[in-house]
Amino acid sequence: MSNFLSEENSAETVNARMGDSTDPRMRQVMTSLVEHLHAFVKDVELTEQEWAAAIGFLTRTGQICSATRQEFILLSDVLGLSMLVDAIHHRRPSGATENTVLGPFHVAGAPERGMGETISLDGVGESCLYQGRVLDLDGNPVANAVIDVWSDNADGYYDVQQPDIQPPMNNRGVFRTGADGTFSFRGIKPVSYPIPDDGPVGQLLEQVGRHPYRPAHIHFLVSAEGYEGITTHMFVAGDPYLDSDSVFGVKQSLIAAFEKRAGADTEWQAAFDFVLKKAE
Ligand code: BEZ
Ligand code: FE
User: Fold this and answer.
1) Could you give the CA distance from residue 202 to residue 24 in angstroms, rounded to a whole number?
2) Best substitution site from 68, 69, 77, 254 to test ligand 1's pocket, by max atoms within 8 Å of Cβ?
3) Assuming Cys at both sites, which of 146, 167, 268, 280 could form a disulfide with 128, CB separation 3.0 to 4.6 Å?
4) How far apart are alpha carbons 276 and 190 in whole angstroms?
5) How many angstroms from the chain centroid is the CA of residue 26?
6) Of 133, 227, 131, 129, which is closest to residue 180 (Cα–Cα)?
7) Is 236 helix (H, G, I), strand (E, B) or coil?
8) Domain residue limits, the chain
9) Rounded CA gap, 22 and 6, in Å?
10) 74 CA: nearest ligand 1 atom
């Protein structure tokens, strides 16, 4: 085989250039990436205009990134890549709570709150009592588990998206289970909302006839010493976007019933247990 690149030998020619001292994992990943990229271009016979459009798209994706906006992760999310990588690396036994996408709106350092306290600092939205337990795979309570929770407000925005409207740390809090593994807190019943769609990812969704909405959900990071931490959501049963989440984050086991509390027709309640697997 010559060193010159042709349509027939393109991927092999590029991969043959890799140096002998290349890290083995780097070699494996780059070899496969080049093979798949070249196969894709051949498959669709990518035109020069399409190639230029793709370069322009990736350039704009980079340009819109900032300290508070990560358009490449958003791109990965809408292409289903974030959930695929998560699925491969968080295979769990049946009964353990499943993972889903982290999303861009987690804020480290949310205040630790006492059980039963509310995370809704502005009181805007339909109040909801959240209750449940953190358990191990045998059903035993996990004490001292840390539950970091965040949700959007009644208009579908996280506090960090509306720093001039919402108080800092609105709809966020950290709770720690006691010996019985239970937790309870108040917040609002979350609402469905569009992912940030005013950039290249939003344009892409539009071009392929997809909406930007996520079904209503509340986020959780649950961790405990000796257990594999989980990144997950509770989704609101009945939400019209459950079957078409723009980032493919829905799993059947994460859909929870939200019901009106008996004797309190203005407040909702939702119950959900988190089941942790021992760390390896
Ligand atoms: C979220 O649920 O907060 C989210 C997830 C992925 C992309 C955008 C937002
Ligand atoms: Fe979210």
Assistant:
1) 37
2) 77
3) 268
4) 24
5) 26
6) 133
7) strand
8) 10-46, 72-276
9) 24
10) 7
B/e letters for 131-160, b = 16+ CB within 10 Å, e = fewer, are: bbbbbbeeeeebeebbbbbbbbbeeebbbb
- What are the 10-residue block averages of pLDDT along the chain, 280 residues in total? 88 97 98 98 98 98 96 98 97 97 96 98 96 98 98 97 97 97 98 98 98 98 98 98 98 97 86 96
Structure tokens at 53: 């459009």
Please give the pLDDT value at position 75: 98
Q: Is the CB of 205 under 6 A from ligand 1?
A: no
pTM: 0.94
Q: Which atom of ligand 1 is nearest to the CA of 82?
A: 6
Ligand 1 and 156: CB distance under 6 A: no
Q: What pLDDT does residue 262 have?
A: 83
State the greatest distance between any 2 C-alpha atoms of the chain, in Å, as a whole number: 80
| Pairwise CA distance, residues 147 & 274, whole Å | 10
Q: Is the CB of 233 under 6 A from ligand 1?
A: no
Q: Which residues contact 261 (CB under 8 A, 6 or more apart)?
A: 129, 267, 268, 269
| Among 223, 219, 227, 229, CA closest to 272 | 219
Q: CATH number of the domain at 72-276, please?
A: 2.60.130.10
Helices 71-78 + 48-63 axis angle, to 10: 130
CB 216 within 8 A of CB 226: no
